[in-house]
Design brief:
The complex is a heterodimer of chains A (165) and B (140). Chain A has 165 residues and is mainly β. Helix content of chain A is 12%, strand content 32%. The chains are: A mainly beta (165), B alpha+beta (140). Strand 2 of chain A pairs antiparallel with strand 2 of chain B.
């Protein structure tokens, strides 16, 4: 008997899809400081109280949602993030590959290109899982490459969902 | 003379100075605010339990944030991080302690530039691996 696939034509159509985003404002000192502070970092270069030109921690560009006006869905998840329809549950982060090309500075106006590169169904211990992979390419207003984040999200089929240690 | 990162002379097999931090619910909420991502799974215990999880779970990118911080602290200026790749293996929950660790696994010298390939991972206070992967540091 052929195994049931949860990849519908609608989900299959995501593969290769390209989307472009632009930050709603330039990176400022407050955004960098709040990020560093929330993580408990103490390096004074992330705060620069003297010249107000802090350097961003390396992962700042990837971890921060740069769209201040984006809508949030019912779970609080930014609506510009990829999601899958029922029967898939909430997205979980599978892993990341960060490539760092240039540090982010205050005044940078970030542009992002997202391209979906992978879609794979697997059987996990708790049931069917779908792995969705995409590249997020970050550039500044001059077109200079800041970084690339290859990210994999995992979606569980809801009736199989169980989370824990 | 070219400036050297403080660990440009690191040897293969050398351990990277670990980075340790306890992640409170407050920190998880601050991170959700600072990253402008208020996804309830990462700070709301009730929401998370309703969806089958033990509790709110620490956002996956925080593992990467802390691994990167461990690496740049240890490498010092003018070294820089070239890449960091990690897979999440298990979840962390409020009040867990994250312990980032690493080890130099390879060293490649090109002119006055030294690339260090490092294995990196995150453990919790019980020694359980939460995330693991590999990083490359350019240590001039």
């Amino acid at each position: 008997m052929e195994k049931k696939s949860y990849i519908t034509p609608e989900i299959q159509a995501l593969l290769g899809q390209e989307t472009h985003f632009q930050a709603t404002e330039a990176v400022d000192a407050g955004k960098i400081r709040r990020f560093a502070k929330s993580l408990g970092f103490e390096d004074s270069r992330y705060y620069d109280l003297e010249n107000h030109q802090p350097i961003a921690p390396p992962t700042f560009v990837f971890s921060v949602n740069h769209d201040s006006l984006v809508a949030m869905d019912g779970s609080g998840r930014p609506a510009n993030r990829l999601n899958l329809p029922s029967p898939f549950g909430p997205a979980m982060r599978g892993g990341n590959r960060y490539q760092f090309f240039q540090p982010v500075r205050t005044g940078d106006h970030i542009r992002i290109q997202r391209k979906v590169t992978g879609l794979e169904e697997k059987e996990g211990k708790t049931g069917t899982l779908l792995f969705l992979t995409y590249d997020l390419t970050y550039k500044n207003q001059k077109g200079e490459l800041l970084g690339i984040n290859t990210e994999t999200l995992i979606f569980r089929v809801l009736q199989d969902q169980k989370g824990g240690r | 003379m070219t400036a050297k990162g403080k660990n440009a002379k690191a040897l293969e097999g050398q351990a990277i100075l670990p980075f340790r931090i306890q992640v409170s619910k407050l920190r998880m909420m601050m991170y959700a605010a600072a990253t402008w991502n208020p996804y309830q799974l990462h700070w709301d215990s009730d929401y998370s339990k309703t969806h089958g999880f033990l509790d709110a779970n620490v956002a996956g990118p925080m593992f990467g944030d802390y691994l990167a911080e461990m690496l740049v602290r240890w490498a010092g200026d003018p070294a820089r991080l070239k890449s960091l790749e990690y897979t999440n293996r298990a979840m962390a929950f409020p009040e867990d302690t994250l312990i980032c660790k690493g080890k130099v696994e390879g060293k490649f010298i090109e002119g006055d530039r030294t690339d260090l390939r490092c294995r990196v991972w995150v453990e919790n206070q019980e020694g359980k691996t939460l995330a693991e992967g590999e990083a490359v540091l350019i240590s001039f």
